[in-house]
């Protein structure tokens, strides 16, 4: 699916189905882009497990990727998003996981 394989900077939503948790993780990590991602679920523990396995600089749980950039700036973890920063402090893979409150409504979903 073209929207899945290309980077976009507009209000875009793409959905995919998968059979197992591991297949879902593989699907997310198959992208060439790794700046920001989001996972939606009613099980926070599953979301946290998924977040720990995602190859992305910022991971949102039950919230949009808009206005949730990492406080030190966007960091790609490889592929077409770039490879982050190159000082000694940045030679480890870091994630910023954002847990959004349950029941929050968004303009296009309410």
Outline of the structure:
Helices cover 21% and strands 11% of the residues. The chain has 110 residues and is α/β, with parallel strands linked by helices. It has a three-stranded parallel sheet, covered by helices on one side.
Task: Describe the structure in your own words.
With about 110 residues, the chain is of the alpha/beta class. The chain contains 3 helices and 3 strands; from the N terminus they run ααβαββ. The model has no long low-confidence stretch (mean pLDDT about 75). It starts with a helix and ends in an 11-residue tail after the last strand. It is about 20% helix and about 10% strand. β1 (about 35-40), α3 and β2 (about 60) form a beta-alpha-beta unit.
Tell me the layout of helices and strands.
Layout: H1 2-5, H2 21-29, E1 36-39, H3 44-53, E2 58-61, E3 96-99
Parallel strand pairs: 1-2, 2-3
